[in-house]
Queue: 4 jobs
Job 1
Amino acid sequence: MTSPGHGWRLLAYLTAVVAGTAVHDPRWLAAALGAALLLSGRGRGALLRRALKGVAAVALLVSGGYLIMGAILGEASSEFLLLLNTRLILLATLTAWAVRDIDLDRALCRYPEARRWLSIVRVQIALFVRLAQEFRQAQRSRAAFHPSLASRTRGVAALGVAALDKALHNAEEVTQGMRSRGAFDD
Amino acid sequence: MHIPDGLISPQTYLPAVAIAAPLWLLASRKLRTALEDEALPRLAVFTALSFLLTTLMLPLPGGTNGHAIGVALLTLCFGPWTAFLAYSLVLLLQALVLGAGGITTLPVNALAMGFVGAWTAWAVFSLLHRYETAAVAAAVWFSVIIPALLVALVLGAQPSIAQAPDGTPRFFPFGPAVTLPAIVIPHLFIGAAEAVFTCLVWRHARRRRWVNPDRSKGVKAGVHP
Amino acid sequence: MIELAEVGVDFPDGRCALEEIDLRIEAGERIVLLGANGCGKSTLLKVLNALIVPCRGSYRFDGEAIDGARVRDRKWSRRFRRRMALMFQHPEAMLFNPTVEEEIGYGLRHLSDAERRERVARWAAELGLSARLSVPPSALSGGEKQRLCLACVLAVEPDVLLLDEPTASLDPRTVGWLIHHLAESNITTIVATHHLALAPEFGSRAVVLSEAHRIVFDGPVEDALANTPLLLENNLAYAHRHSHSGHEHLHLLCPDGLLAAEEMK
């Protein structure tokens, strides 16, 4: 049912991320990226795509800005650009791999309270996401014209009120649900 | 405003962990003492609420949107410790379950937006609570601007904190002259949009008695310092 | 077994949730709690399950008075929770374990591992969840979540079972299974519903709550269903007059369909 393996995986991921920020040679970082992709097994292409998608905007913005500043001031370093981008891609790949292969619930198998918290959060997030979707769909179905800034703001505020209302109600309900099943009697 | 991994040096995030860890511990103790058995389910539900708030798209003029942070709303309704904890946990979930944001930058993000954001909102609201709507608006605006300022300073400090012997940066390359306007100016507008949003929600919150009007600093469901 | 005397409950904002509730339930009885939305059915079930302590009146379970101090006594609570189980109207309230297997087994912590596994497997099979045991409850569909909640409360094998709107999102096959299962067992059941058509299937005694949060009827289900003014006054049905072929009819409709048709002179 539970596996200590995921706890070790989480630890290995955290160590690798810290190590990825402590090494400043792009060749080592590139080698680590290659090793990570090799070890991640099938689906490594999807992993790399996911990582690139996650950091593309930041990498382009920072690199582009650096190049422009460098052109103006005349002191751009290609070594730095290589270091920054390799590091960003390596860390994003490690995170994408962790998200794919570490089951947080199993990683927390020694911490029953944390697992319970995570389970409730997951159920509740699904509820809140559904609430938000229904709200947006209802807004779209009722909007005859392109909504103004004021009406868009009112729409988001109405969702905020509904979410807060639901949160207070659900917090009470989940507490009662847990009490009813003897969760506070141990 | 989420900073991804790779832009912040260990010289920055390791001390941030050292500051954040005891604060997380203290926040969870306060929550437990105040709510006893109810702490776990309440924190879980508020984490989910916080998750929703961070995904809300605030309308900005010109048909554009900005992400809400929601820390001020959580603070005004449930107290700064709960807001800080719920927001930190959302960052953790976003990093480890969705792969968004970063794990090394989590303590910096949590301290800036979660801790400083929550306490700024709390302090400003307490200071101005006689003029309620203005207090809410100011609390929200400052709770967006001050953390944005902090994040800009932390990022802007990176070239001086972590550089190679030849002076080239190793992490984020721009100094505060670039980061301050680039980060703070958009947040002036996001803060204003979030202030309008929060004031509208607050009006309903008051009408539905989620908040106690007599104790302007107190809220029924939260944990208070 | 259960005795409520003059019980009243107020919401934190001062609104009344229940008023002057007198109810006596003997072991083995099967009761249907009828009432419109918002009349206090869920609150009454929560009072019975010792989740809400009444503001007024008294509640006794097997002769023991249930008050704030009793509810806080963890030893008593452990015993009580094994004897009485409540299935909430919204399944999300009861789901807080990482997997379906752990969720069903949660109320069985007092059993040995082997016994617990056997019981979890049995109830998962009964409710068609055997293939979903390792899945997190958040990944289940709405109907599956409701079946999981049912498995959770039935697996405890309680003496008293409280079901809050069990038919709301259950599929017809599971509703049929539940009705059959309850009829076969000798568990004391209290089923809250506003589905009149299913009321006789769930019990022989009806308790009707009014929109003023009071008990306005306590007697045989058939009598309640035949009492048109009672159903109309308490928002459990509405009358619809229409005519075809020159004959005027009065149809008594309830949320789940036609309850009765009467030809008018």
Job 2
Amino acid sequence: MSQEKAETMAISINAMFSGNHSSIQKIDPRARIICSFMFALAVVLSRDIAALLMALSCSLAMVYMARLPVLSTLKKMAAMDSFMLYLMVLLPFTVPGEVMVVVWGYEGSWQGLEQAIQITLKANAVVLMLFATVSIIPSSVLGSALSSLQVNMKLIQLLLFTMRYLTVIAQEYARLRRSMKARAFVMRFNWHSWKSIGYLIAMLLVRSMQRSQRIINCMKCRGFSGKYISYYPLQWQLKDTRYCLAMALFIMLIISINFVGGL
Amino acid sequence: MTDIRTPLLVVKNLSHRFISQELLLDDLSFSIASGEKIALIGDNGAGKSTLLQLLVGLIPLQDGELIALDKKLLAERDFVEMRQFVGLVFQDPDDQLFCPSVLEDVMFGPLNQGLDLLAAEQKSLQILANLELTHLIHRMASDLSGGEKRLVTLATVLVMEPKILLLDEPTNALDSKAKQKLLAVLQSLDQAMLVISHDLDFLKQLTSRSLVLSERKLVSFI
């Protein structure tokens, strides 16, 4: 690709990134995807609490660098962590081990609590890292990055279509729910309610299938022949290599701490 | 340059049946000449949208003949070629706008026509500028208003430089201001058009003749 073309495309990419000017956003999306994947793998396989705390600290630092909106990020995390709260309460009573507490004759173990803490730390570290690095990639650039990483074209298209049509399906769901409410429907724990919700879900599926047929017709009308076209060619730079090296070192550190802890 | 009377698309004795064998369209014949703007009127369920889809080969032709630019359309590959110069604007803009941003949606057609990224981008930006939509280029289709969506769908088709535009209820769900803007844009275009609409006032201002589809037949030319 000529320099002039590359510059013009770079202008387009910059415009796509206009919503976020953080230092993380300047890193090549491919570097962020690969590193986040490796980071998630290392974190999920870790068992050492110190290593997990380090991983969480790294994720928090990345969130800070990515300049994510604090309130909405906290809200999203709270939704996930409310589920983790259940784990904290339930796991000690389901995992056998050294007794920590006895409630109504049921013994809670330290090992159960440790597992719950591990899972909570892992989930928070991985999700925060994904928020900071991958979630800020505009969907079109994400498509180009995945395509350049040789991800299956059909999977990329499925992902992009899902991102595009999720709101449309949500709007359709809201319309159907409104029309049910307008006819005095109130959700109760009875056969009629479950049947009605079943109809609603079936109708959403039918409409989604019909829409997918119309979309493929629209695509055919505009010359689509089954080939995915990458709109934003990406250019690997020195800073991307540096980012990958730094992340690789950190991931190796997490893995090493696990071994040291294991000894 | 093509003469105003040159038929771009000729439909001869076209008939179509549902899977149940019930007849939907019976022995339709008409032609669309270069630059001609035609209204297609009919009741709900008369088969207007089906006819448009038959014309671009989205529904297989059962009976009759289609001739585009003096070439008889027989197989899917003929229709693939034909869709390069016949642009169909669908009823629901959400079906037509499937890319993450407006610019990419407009670039989709030219890229499929074989243009490189830069040329496709420049051509798309030009069309968007002509339709005064430049401010929308990086917006997501789901964030657009009904009027904006309609104009963007038109841009996605016009960028492919079609000779004929097939418009399926373009004024659907548009307020009067958006409708007037769309009308002004369509009136300024040189392309031949076949427009389905229930908005007779809109059709009267845009088209020069009408085809009425009633009881499976094209009953009159007004």
Job 3
Amino acid sequence: MQGTIIENLSGKKLSLLVILLIIAQIVCFLIGGLIAPTPASSQNILGTQCKDTSINGSDENKWFYSRGNGSCTSVDDTHFSSDTHQQPYQIVYTFQMPVPRNNLDLDYSRWQQNLIGVLQVDIRYNSEVEIARRTLITLDARLAYRSKDPQDVWKPYASSTVERILDCSIDMPREQYNYNCKAMPLFELGSLYHDYYLLNIRLPSNTGKNQGLGRIVDLWLTAINQNGGFTKVWVSLKTVYFPIVLGVLTWYWKRVYMLSRSPALLEYMLLTLGSALTFLNLPLEYLTLAYDMPFMLLLGDIRQGIFYATLLSFWLVFAGEHLMLSFIILAGISAGIYLLFLSYMIWKVFKNISAKRAVLPSMSSARRLHYEGVIYRFKFLMIATLLCASLTVVGFILGQVAEGQWKWDEDLELEMTSAFFTGVYGMWNIYIIALLCLYAPSHKQWPIEPSENSISEEIEFSPLPTDPNEMLSLTAFARKTAVE
Amino acid sequence: MRLWMLLAVLSVTAYVSLAEITKNKNRGRGSMWWGIAKADEPNNFLPVSPTSMLDSSVYGNLRRKQKKLIRDNPGVLQAISRGANQAVAECQYQFRNRRWNCSTKNFLRGKNLFGKIVDKGCRETAFIYAITSAAVTHSIARACSEGSIQSCSCDYTHQSRTSSAVRDWEWGGCSDNIGYGFTFSRDFVDTGERGRNLREKMNLHNNEAGRTGVVSVLLQHVSSEMRQECKCHGMSGSCTVKTCWMRLPSFRVVGDNLKDRFDGASRVMVSNSDRVRSNANLANSVHQHRDGLSRRQRYNLQLKPYNPEHKPPGPKDLVYLEQSPAFCEKNPKLGILGTHGRQCNETSLGVDGCDLMCCGRGYKTQEMVVIERCACIFHWCCEVKCQKCRTTKTVHTCL
């Protein structure tokens, strides 16, 4: 019977492979920790209040900005104190992204991939005008873009009148203190194709809108973008892994195809998993450097989602294959129980194998050594699976821990978030490469040991006639003893 | 480092005349920039030259390094001016109920904005230095966020790369603005103070305490999760990637914080080691004397508490050298207006109570009819509709 590579590989070769994979894993982690910056960074932009002098503020092509030629006349916030008769639409909050630094007019690079805008409202406490905890706010938001060319003008990108719930509280209600209002998500750009962006926000007051807002002093926009350095490191990882995984995957499938039997469920699952990973590895990000691809955020979600789904179902099948139980019903359980369940199953596999080991002493020495080796390697792979699963789940949990741009401990050289991302990403790739390699059908034939009781043993351990070559030999071994 | 040395050399060459040194010996020489508050409100069009909009008397009082900073960083002047005004308003609010009410004088060349009280190293002076320095930090950070100062630094803290700012920005984004506000305030506000005598050390310490006040308000709120905002933007909005940022507090919070520090300010004296040092300095060459303290020494001042049983002052604490005058009677020598004619609160037992405020001179009580705005309704954006209420108020005024 033909086994898989993991069963037939010598201990020396296996350890060499394992060491290589571990080194690759460490390299992945260090790339993230030492080279890559934090995954994302943000700029806090204070809105400049411009005065719209047009008659009703409905001119769609009029853009207000605070820097550059033709910048607007700004109004200071003293308009609250006096009874001036400005109309609400005359005040336009303008946000020009990005904000200049080091005397340079910074622009967005396409490497920065995406832009998320979060709006915050600073409302001053005034005992005469207290505001409700939750207030409806209506924003007339218009987004424009411009290229670096100094002759270029602002071109409209998107505009919308949106409603958001403003959630404000105040701990110490004192005059001149600000309410603590929660940030409101405003926009998400899936591709950062243009150089500059401009956001104009009006707070319309027609038909009784925006009346419960109190005294707004400032509007702040936090523009979050992925860091170019992180994208570069990430895409490099993808570029390296994509051909490797693709190569290993074709090699694996060739091996399976060469078998006389039709592929088993586990083999199909491995193929699907490899394909999902290849899809995830595909460095589509290069295209965003040349084309405007606003669907990238969605595509990224889909790719990641497919990968997660395949990986989790694979683990179920993988663990199930070695315990010979039906797990399809249990496949629907939630992700939290998932890890516990997986650990439990792996523990049972261990117990199962240990129980079956009791049979081993009655076998001939060569056969016993073979099975012991096989059991040992499976245990090793099981632990690797558990580790990979735990790290993936821990990744989710660690993600909840705040990772601010503000670092007071500036001596810390290691960028933990990025290290974790590249580490986990590398781990998936390495793990799946290892699986594809180790579970590929082996060409080696196990030599039949010439001995007097070899015939009876051969009968004992030959696969069941109803189950032609479908199982791994360990599975067969476990099932055989179970039948007895 | 080289830049810093260059600036130090510049400030040495910017030595003022001998007469001015003797005149300002008591208060140190870093306080004249406050006059920017009285400069005409700048308009929004960037002037061709930043000096044109400044009163020549105000500009003339700036130190050469401060002028250079203003020249080199367009937009900074408006921010400092806004900050100085904010500081004056905040000081007057915090001290509205005290004998000394942070009154400002008409600003003339060579005169100090807050009057001669700053010649004395008392608590009030400590507060003035701290609040002005804090206001510069705050308003520079604000102006950076607005984009009205182009030169705000883009500190790329992850690795000390020597590449250009554009590449830093593309690679790893820019740091928060409060850091720039902090360092700019150090450069601009502390210019005149070299920490050579105790008064200059007091000024340096209080300036630093003001700046630290802004940052500590920020951090204090971070720990209570009030001022820190986060956004999750991982896969499908999950929290695999989370970006957090700070929100600049309202300046009133900073003012309240510093007022608390004012109440708990510690009195300091020259420590022995300092005396030895300054004597040695006198004996040494003029150059060493002129250079004053190095940057590291400047902000690691070891001030000794006047009362040996007290703890030495921490970086956030305000320090003073001498007891405050009573502020009761008019004293032109110290620029004190006195409390004659000030309104007081008859029922209060605090400093705003009539007993303390009027220094036991007694007060007169008047019935006044006041027309006030009341029952205000606020209409977004720009209208506050109020009723006018006539109320009869009893007003107590110090004799």
Job 4
Amino acid sequence: MGLGNYFKDIKAGLTSAFEGMSISLASLFVRPVTVQYPDVDVKSDEAMRENYNGPLRGMPDNYRGLLDVDLEICISCKLCEKACPIDCILIEDVKIDKKQIVGRNGKSTMKMKSPIQFDIDNSKCMFCGLCVDPCPTGAIVHTNEFEFNRSDRSQLISRFVKADDRAQLKVRGAEIAIEDAKAKAEKAAKKKAEAEAKAKEEEEASKDQSEAKGTKE
Amino acid sequence: MKSLVNHFEDGIILTNVDYALGLGRAHSLWYMLFGLACCGIEMMQTGGPRTDLDRFGAVPRATPRQSDLMIVAGTVTLKMAERVKLLYGQMAEPRYVISMGSCSNSGGLFQCGYSVLNGVDKVIPVDVYLPGCPPRPEALASAIIDVQKKVVREPHLRKNV
Amino acid sequence: MDILIQTIGDIINADLGSPLAAFIALLLVSLAILGFMSLTAGGLSFIERRVAGRMQSRIGPNRVGPQGILQFMADGLKCAQKEDLIPDGADRLLFKLAPVLCFIGVFGTFAVLPWGNGFFASELNVGLLYLMSVTSLVVIGMLMAGWSSNNKWSLLGGMRSAAQMVSYEIPVALSLLPVILLCGSLSFKELIGAQGAMPWDWNILNSPFTFISFFIFFLAALAEGNRTPFDIPEGESELVAGYCTEYSGLRFVFFFFAEWANLYVIGAVAAAVFLGGGHLPFGLESDIVSLLVFFAKSFFMVFIIIWLRWTLPRFRVDQMMTLCWKTLIPLSFVMLFGQAITLLIYHELTFLQSIVSLVLFAICVLVGVKFVSRVLVNIKEQKYKMMHTLTGS
């Protein structure tokens, strides 16, 4: 029994080594699957097919790469900031002149505010996509960009609002704020006046009523 | 060789010698087998058939003495941070570090955890930060290409002013 | 290179009276061998990485120079620039000596290795014996490296490599004995001269005993060269990098050189002793051609070693020692006695030898055909898998 197993083992060892060697030799004659990355564009399936002829596929359309924000249609609702589980989005906004915008989903919305600071810290971001879902206009989206290497951590933050735009928006925002304050004050004054007038009327009415009551009595 | 480093003035010959030496260093970045978390899996995959880091002359080495590149792949806990520092100290000069993934860049998802180091750059100097959670294999390859560019530009023999 | 060695050999013969000329000639020979050894070791490291890549469906280094052929130069340049680290607790003298010893152990073997049918750096009449004994220096180097590093992984790796190499030297020597018995010489020149051009005239096919001896020699030489499946002294999964854990820069390159040059030594010894040296049939034989044939045979053996490395998994320590002491050594003794008896029988019945050789040759061809057919089947299978499973369509 022991001796039989001994020879059986030897036979199994030899045949498996034989088969293994034939498999590894065969793979020398089969094309490697390697995607030669810097020479081959892997960002989409079609782009990859241009320079690569193998079984692997490029990145899918719904790949969650770096975030991109379309500031034209961002209404600064800050839903993404709230949704982010690691607080890597920072938004500050000002009021702007109202305008009608059409979101990525086709719905048109009134844009009242615009961000003057929209920072995404890519060193923290975990590319989960939770900020993309609640966006009402589809302003924040994942691209299939993945090369964002920096030699300094502070450069990893993507700042979407440019400095010029920010200054302009700030100036205009201040003006709007003043106008708004003016309008508010006017409105408040008007309201006050109205209220006063109403109060007067009511007073008079109650006077009349009491008088009428008095006369009745 | 050590006695020659940072020893000479600028000159056309030395610039070319430096360039050649830099090419040698850049195309033989042996990285240390050093995966800390999920990015480690992606790092192994990068050495695999699809991206094949071996194309750039980067092969894994098990010991820090023979490796030139440390890929900090994953969450650096406070306990591991000491080891990371020790391993970095054990690597022979010239040495380079890639901080791979959000966790080692800044603590990432776990930045508020009581046991997590917020960024590996608090313990060792980092050459390239690579965002991603985890970065895809091609992204790690691009980081290695970035390190190569940096290495080639580096004056090794000339005085670093 | 061959011309260089020949002319320098002539100079030695001519001006042996003048010690200076002899010294210069020897220096030139050793420099030429050093150059050859460096190129072989570097080239083999590149070939190994490419072959490994292709066997794993990768490409391997292809960015430095045309198709990455200068990869080993980049590695060498890099290693030369690395900081030379010596650990605090290390024994400095032994730490520095160890890589040199390893290197000398392998470099010394090149002195007697044949370069074809007629070319030798030095033609020693006890060439094989010298080769076996000089290789033992490598063991001392590795043990020294392991011990002087003052690192437990290094020490374990060094101990393992010492145990392994000392054990496996015995089957290597014993498996060479049947051939020595057959040819009646230890000199490489006579060992090659005793063989013919056709495969059935080679020592390997002389009798079933030399045939099995060849495999014993091959396995044991693999283990002595620390190659997979016997590379436990540097097994990354158990010991960090074995005996060379603490070595960096150029000192590591010496170990690296020794390992890859040893690969060529194994191939060359196998080609010279068992596979008929540089002989070529049909009257095509000449000095230069024999050189090429010899290199082709050696590098084919090296390719088989590389191929084995990327196919088979690593042995466990106890399995490896069991294989050596309980299987290979008794078996090689049996082969020695068998060959001795066979020689007696051949002496009486001369026609028997050619029949046995032809039968063995036929068996080899049959196994080869079977193997090639399996390879073809596997190629088809892998291509099918590549087209249909990976795309998911």
